[in-house]
Amino acid sequence: MSLGAPWYPNCCGPNKEGVMVSIWEARRMVLENAPLLGEVEVPLAEAAGHVLAQKVASDVDLPPFHKSAMDGYAVRAEDVRDLPAVLKVAEDVPAGKFPERPLAPGKCTRVMTGAPVPEGTDLVVMVEDTEPLPDGRVRILKAPRDKTNVCPKGEDVKEGEVVLSPGHILGPPEIGLLAAVGAERVRVFRRPKVAVLATGDELVCAGERPGPGQIRDVNTYSLLALCMKRGFDAESLGIARDEPGELRERIRLGMGEADVVLVSAGVSVGDYDFVPDVLWELGVRTVFHKVAMKPGKPTVFGVYDGGVLFGLPGNPVSTIVTFLLFVDPVLRRMAGFPVGELAPLKALLDGRLVNKGDRTAIKPCLLAREGAGWRATPVESHGSADIASLSKANAFMVIGREERLELGDTVDVIPMEVGCCLLLEAGG
Ligand code: AMP
Ligand code: MG
Fold it and tell me: Pick from 405, 428, 280: which is nearest to 348 by CA?
């Protein structure tokens, strides 16, 4: 992997000083430093959710033959000019068979939906508009006048035609199209592998009952869920104690195995926040170390030969917010998705908000449709540790420094959902 993009002065060191960047600067910096991963060939069944890295041309016409769109009778137009008409059924062609003879005057061929029609067919009469007669004849009662009920060979795709180009996101319709044109294996951009490390002496696994002074590890689970929901492989590196040696070993392991390492907690300036020093020792080149946002200030982003690393703030709400703002676009950029500027939704505020601080405030809300637009209702939250409040929210509001918003004002909102992120950045 080449990291051609510029990187910024290393600001992690024993003194832990660093420039504070705005959310928008941080976002630009992470995207500038997110390398596009290489191409891999995958079987079609595993290609969904990848970005295509090659041109794909069709090896067949679609449809591959003149095809009946109805269950009915293939006829010549002149034989059904005067109705009702009685025609002899010359042949029966279900889907999967090919007619043995062309259509002769005064005769018809029984065809099923998807079956090839015989040469000489002008139109297919629906079975509902016919009446079977004894000794292999049929009475035609009505014939279509403004359509043929025949799909001409190659009308959808011509043999040799390029149906998909590099950069196309492979969703269910594209996977179906690739199957139709015989692309059983395709080259796609590799998706980043993520390693998640929780840090903190106070943490125990979700399956354990916390002892005195302990809490359960929330971030490993929410970060794995965020990655997996977006289709990225993520693995846990467990919980590291607040001890430089252990942190160094676990982070080194993650850097060796993954393209993106997410370390939660221990990234601030407290006595037990060893992560910045350890990153320095491991040769991670820090791009920024603080973001002017609340929550989420102690967010570290760094690059190393082979990947990128985030040190995310430990409080569970901060971890999710910083993932959505910075990690998510990096993962998608690395996998070849188009990622643009952050363009929050505009919603009507159903409440009042005041941000007296000098950092951008991010607060949970419930986003709902309101006419043609959106309404954002603030969700009560006790702060960045209050993970319970997030289960009542589906988005975050962005409130500028020293900004005051009244009921009915327009507020910027970032949804938590994946689909919305793509939508927001569609122009990028
Ligand atoms: P720190 O950045 O290490 O000072 O942690 C900030 C806060 O986040 C502390 O209250 C930690 O107990 C809490 N915290 C850190 N890691 C986790 C985690 N994995 N799950 C839940 N809370 C955490
Ligand atoms: Mg800690």
Answer: 405
